[in-house]
Design goal:
By secondary structure, this protein is mainly α. The chain has 2 domains: 2-53, no CATH class; 66-299, Poly(a)-polymerase, middle domain (Orthogonal Bundle). The protein has 17 helices and 6 strands. A 3-stranded antiparallel β-sheet has the order 1-2-3, with helices on one face. A 3-stranded mixed β-sheet has the order 5-4-6. α4 crosses α6 (108-121) and α11 runs antiparallel to α13. The longest helix has 16 residues, at 232-247.
Length: 335
């Protein structure tokens, strides 16, 4: 039924001459219908902004509404999050077959929660599902009023939660460092192949089955949002390339980050990088020393050489070690 509805909407968007009364002066371009995806969608741009449209029929709010509120919370919590998501999605979209991308790589939602999981794993962001369960538990959302699309939906967290997070020493880590951390985390070893990423408690667990190439225990999509991924090796190869290039970027390679239209989200270090783009110095040796991340391999991750450091799975050394939060954040930055 949703596919049939989307087909009708797609035809209307293509041929209906009365669309102006619905959309006003907003301009729709790049219209396409992706019927082969696990969740069929209509893709288009409105005034240059990319939009994915899907359909669902239910009497109560679907869990996807709560998932959107959950992701909005991380956008509100950390200014770097929007830039990270946008860059990662765009990078992976440029890899592989453009006509079959939705089958080769995890979808946008899966990539977003994989980013959240990695940032949680290293203590960059908290697990908001645990700390704000009343707000983000789909079982506790009973009516459409609970997901009313307004200010509370786009900015669900209280000011104190946001302020406390932004005072953490880890907030000094740059976007480039976090991109490198994400690329290292999922491209090294057999992490994607042999483990499941649990979004409920933030753990990395041994795989119980092999029915999916990438396995995620999600709060909102209980059937594994990465189930359509054809091969984890596509993802690992793309992220390995990202990791290599972030260490030695060509001139203007990171220009895309500077063009993301969220200037209020731009950390000071990226504003400073504008000078490198303008003066063509991004291959200069000083760039490497100024922006080289402290995360090169799992063995060099923060806390890795600390005797108090603990792994989430002592029986499997391939799982990257998780920070012991008894160690101060100031030590985290120094490493």
């Amino acid at each position: 039924m949703p596919v049939t509805v989307l087909q009708s909407v797609y035809r209307d968007l293509q041929h209906n001459r009365n669309l102006k009364q619905f959309f006003g002066d907003n301009r729709i371009t790049h219209l396409s219908f992706v019927s082969s995806a696990k969740v069929p969608i209509i893709k288009f741009k409105m005034n240059g902004i990319a939009i994915d449209l899907s359909a669902i029929f239910c009497t109560s709010p679907p869990s996807s509404c709560v998932a959107a509120k959950f992701i909005n919370a991380y956008c509100q919590l950390d200014d770097r999050f929007v830039i990270l998501v946008t860059f990662i999605k765009t990078w992976l979209r440029s890899e592989g077959d453009p006509n079959d991308h939705l089958r080769e790589f995890p979808n946008s939602y899966a990539l977003t929660i994989l980013l959240i999981h990695a940032l949680q794993w290293y203590g960059i962001v908290p697990n908001l599902y645990e700390s704000h369960n009343e707000m983000f538990n789909p079982q506790k959302v009973k009516s459409w009023d609970d997901v009313d699309v307004g200010h509370e939906f786009t900015h669900p967290l209280d000011e104190n939660t946001v302020a406390m997070h932004r005072r953490k020493e880890t907030s000094k880590l740059t976007v480039v460092q976090l991109l490198y951390l994400f690329a290292c985390h999922y491209s090294e070893g057999t992490l994607l192949a042999n483990h499941t990423f649990n979004m409920k408690n933030g753990s990395i667990e041994p795989r119980r089955g092999r029915e999916a190439q990438v396995s995620i225990v999600d709060i909102y999509d209980t059937k594994n949002p990465a189930r359509s991924t054809r091969s984890q090796f596509y993802v690992m190869n793309a992220l390995s390339l990202m990791r290599m290039i972030l260490l030695a970027p060509a001139p203007n390679m990171l220009h895309y980050i500077m063009q993301i239209p969220f200037r209020q989200f731009m950390p000071p270090v990226l504003n400073h990088m504008q000078n490198f783009h303008q003066t063509n110095q991004m291959n200069h040796v000083n760039y490497y020393h100024m922006y080289h991340p402290n995360f090169q391999h799992f063995s060099a991750m923060p806390y890795a050489n600390n005797q108090n450091f603990r792994s989430n799975s002592a029986s499997n050394p391939r799982i990257p070690p998780r920070p012991n939060h008894q160690e101060t954040e100031k030590q985290y930055i120094k490493r």
